[in-house]
Amino acid sequence: MLSTQSLLKNTIVRGIPTSGMTLSSLKLATNYSTISKAMVCEKHGKPKDVLRLKELTIPKIKDDEVLVKFLAAPINPSDINQIEGVYPIKPRFKKYGAVGGNEGVAEVVAAGNKVKNLTVGDWVIPDTKAFGTWQTFAASPENELQKISKNISKISASTISVNPPTAYRMLKDFVNLKKGDVIIQNGANSAVGQAVIQIAKAWGIKTINVVRDRPNFDELADQLHKLGATLVIKEEDLRANSTRELVKNLGSPVRLGLNCVGGKSANGITRLLGHNASLVTYGGMSKQPLTFGTGPFIFKNLKACGFWNSRWNKEASKKDKQYMFDDLCELIRGGYLAEPWHDETKWELSDDNKTLNRKFMKALSKAGASFGNKKQILTFE
Amino acid sequence: MLSTQSLLKNTIVRGIPTSGMTLSSLKLATNYSTISKAMVCEKHGKPKDVLRLKELTIPKIKDDEVLVKFLAAPINPSDINQIEGVYPIKPRFKKYGAVGGNEGVAEVVAAGNKVKNLTVGDWVIPDTKAFGTWQTFAASPENELQKISKNISKISASTISVNPPTAYRMLKDFVNLKKGDVIIQNGANSAVGQAVIQIAKAWGIKTINVVRDRPNFDELADQLHKLGATLVIKEEDLRANSTRELVKNLGSPVRLGLNCVGGKSANGITRLLGHNASLVTYGGMSKQPLTFGTGPFIFKNLKACGFWNSRWNKEASKKDKQYMFDDLCELIRGGYLAEPWHDETKWELSDDNKTLNRKFMKALSKAGASFGNKKQILTFE
């Protein structure tokens, strides 16, 4: 973990080298503008075509603002869709363009006089849409940030605001699950899928995990079992009688299905659901529509719903969010929720802009690869 | 309405002509067996092949039983599916076979000594599955019957236990509708559809009604408007921009969709739903599966559920049922809920068995016709 001192070494305040600053002298930072290096787009388009590295001048912060220094930020598929303009949330275009990235963790390095709930040294994650996290510094009103525990790794903290809450809320808000209950999910090797397996395991819930067949299926299944998966099956086995038997042997009807694939996969999952179960859809990776038989809906009393973390985040109270993040941090600290499988791209202050751009584009292209297992995470050194 | 006296005229108690009996002498009936003429099947199959008229001897009723004389009973599509064996509810096969029919109204003509809540003269509807209503008499424990108001027509009473409750519950249990809210339904000319239009109208809710195109579309639309429909549109207009405009002009987002068709129709309805709306499926007349885009589920927060009146009926308390039936009878008496469009088949006691069989088979064949507008109802004279 980085100390405030080591952070200071990397802080650039225009005209004043911060290296060697003391904590008290940090307050000075509020009086100066700051340069942020940011991945910016001026219009919608393929991210590799429209994004480029820019140096942005952040004016001195206002009384109700904090200045934050980013520690880590992932490149998520929804970030890409957002830049393409095909996502319901649009980038925040300003004069200089829009900074990409919605998720990440930052440290507060300066706070205005009227800031109440944050202090220098706090770790924060965005609590608003289209924050712009692919940059080294940002100024923000404090209410657009959510304080987060510092007792977790910066990789965990930078990826805590989208995937783990998606898993957490889907396991909590649709069916009142009890210990020993069974759920099923497809896309089980996704970052959400990994979080589902681990949170379910921590809560005593059994998981049936569906993944696409692949050359290293056994290896993947092994990894998922290590995370706590009860069963791991292939998409094409969803309809097999042997699968029905396996599911039956779990001893409880399947009460909840989580779907990020759609098409045949969602339909196959529906067939394994028990009476009064819910199917929650949070993605559509196959780009196929959801297709269900009418009978199971009527006679098994199924429900199909959507879940979108951005909506939850917008509608939930600060208190509910704090409760959830505390709970998630607790799970992380307790060793129940590991960092997602990831590749780290180190964004070093000593890198020149061309190098940073090249590093970013490489990570971006991996993040855009269909069905990639590994999350791409920028870490700012 | 039939008086007890006129009922007595038609009651056959083995060996004792009841014509001219007084009310007090009815108690005698409990001491004798009764002959019921019934449409019975001995196995699953096409109803026209497996059903035949039989004379069944009903033994003298037990202390906790009542003897009822049927007044009217419809032939519903689900009755047909049940005899075919393709419905989750199976006929009650006994030694002599199973009597068809699940819905109808009967009058209590005799009550055992321990019967508490019913008395001679009460009107009752079945409160259990597979009761067998295509018969002239039946003996039943009182808890398998639900008392119903006598201040409605026997056509209304005989069709009150499936379609109106389906409409009533779907309008009540999924979305908290307020005056001025808008709902959409397909199959709007079905018996449920007609009930939806009328109950919604009574509650101040606007309805968009989708029907298949047909030569007499204008006439049908006119009939639905007379029932209280706000808009009537054709299936093929579901996706038209002009429809979007019409719906917009209703002034409120569409909060609830009711689907008994499936396939493209259900999908088209989903596209017109507003944020946080629910789509309730209670039938699948097109035999096409439900197909939805993933996006609307996630980003519009849609819900898709099934509704099955038989389940509600099984799970609801006697009190909740009584409340609903009282409410429905009130709507009927107030002139808000008309008899469903129907053809009446008079089952006269003076008819010989061959005639009764012929009359029944004619009604059955009309009831089985795809997308028939008119409910087929047997009335026992």
From TrEMBL, chains A, B:
Keyword Ion transport: no
Domain of life: Eukaryota
Stored Gene3D superfamilies: Medium-chain alcohol dehydrogenases, catalytic domain, NAD(P)-binding Rossmann-like Domain
Enzyme class: oxidoreductase
Record domain Enoyl reductase (ER): where: 46-290
Signal peptide: none
Compartments (UniProt record): Mitochondrion
SMART domains for the chain: PKS_ER
One Pfam family in the UniProt entry: ADH_zinc_N
Gene Ontology CC, one term: mitochondrion
Documented EC number(s): 1.3.1.104
Family annotation (InterPro entries): ADH-like_C (IPR013149), ADH-like_N (IPR013154), ER (IPR020843), GroES-like_sf (IPR011032), Mito_Enoyl-ACP_Reductase (IPR051034), NAD(P)-bd_dom_sf (IPR036291)
Catalytic reaction equation(s): a 2,3-saturated acyl-[ACP] + NADP(+) = a (2E)-enoyl-[ACP] + NADPH + H(+)
CDD domains: ETR (cd08290)
Keyword list, A-Z: Fatty acid biosynthesis, Fatty acid metabolism, Lipid biosynthesis, Lipid metabolism, Mitochondrion, NADP, Oxidoreductase, Transit peptide
Any GO BP: fatty acid biosynthetic process
PANTHER family: ENOYL-[ACYL-CARRIER-PROTEIN] REDUCTASE, MITOCHONDRIAL (PTHR43981:SF2)
Family (UniProt): Belongs to the zinc-containing alcohol dehydrogenase family. Quinone oxidoreductase subfamily.
Name of the featured protein: Enoyl-[acyl-carrier-protein] reductase, mitochondrial
